Structure formats: C-alpha cells, structure tokens
Predict the structure.
Amino acid sequence: MIKDSRFFRLMWMVGLVVASVLVIAYIAPEPVSLTAELAPGKYDLETAANGKSKKVNGPVYFEYSDKHNNSMESRIFKLHFVNPLIAEGPGFGFLIPISGTDEMIDKGKYLVGEQGAGVMTHFDTVFGYADMGGKTSALYFSESGSISISGCTPREVFGEIDMVLNDGSGGSVRVTGAFKAQPLPSNITL
C-alpha cells in the first residue's frame, strides 16, 4: 500500500513536469519585430560591403508623389534614409510605385524586379539608390531584394528592408534592417 502511494506521487510529479514543459513549449513567445524597439522617425540598418559590415542609423522620412506617364497616373511612395554622418551624401532612398487610386501604401512585400534593377528606365518595381559619400564616386542602385511594409498610417510607415545595391563597376552593398518613417516635413528637401 505504501509502495502504491509513493509510486502514485512520483508518477503525478513526472506528469506535472511533462505537462509544464509542453505548456511552456506551446506558449513560446513570438519573435520580436525589428521595428518594435525603434523610435518614431528612426531607422537602424546594417550595410555589408567588401566583407565589412557597418551599422547606420538616423532619421527616416516618407512622402508620396504623383507620376504622369502617357495619360496614366500613378503614385510613388518614397522613403528617405538620411545619414547624419555624411554631409555630402543624402544616404539611402527607395521609390515604390503604387496604384494611382491608393491613398497610402499597402502592407506587403515590395520587390526589386529584373526590369527595375540598375538605372531607372521602367518604373513598375522598387527602385533604390545609396549615396555612400566620401572622396570617390560611391553611388549605388538597386539590384535585388525587397522592402516589407508591416504597418502604415498617415503619420507613420514601418517595416524592414533587405536590399542589394551595386555601383555598376562590380561593387555592391547589402542593406538590411528596420525603419519607422514619419512624413517628410515641408521645410526639408531631399
């Protein structure tokens, strides 16, 4: 009888431990978004070129503009990543075409397509540029990658970027990270 009660208590404890482990495994926290810790109007990017990576952060703005092409109207969403450490270069910029009837950009993943890579000729895909500043020519254009918009309101657009840009001479830079853009103030021109 005593053996049965010890065995019962032991099995009950083992069952409780197993159940606790299963509950904890089931309730595992969701991965935290890269934008969760960013302040409004800021970005946190990492650039990788020639085997070296560097953190870049600063202010980020967005704006909308209209594009007229052969009597068709469309809107362009523009993201401006200002690099406060490079006075002679504007930083990074990305242009995303959106439907002419859309007020704001939609949530989703926007890709650089083959026709959008390099110098902008056909504007129906993400186009990006990076002015790395410095003494030598350091202008890069989008080659591949994407911008993911995870949320947007009239006062904020946030998401993540994973883009490869090239300089047309075999050099490339990969830009990854997150942003929480605010509207471009009227007193700033980029």
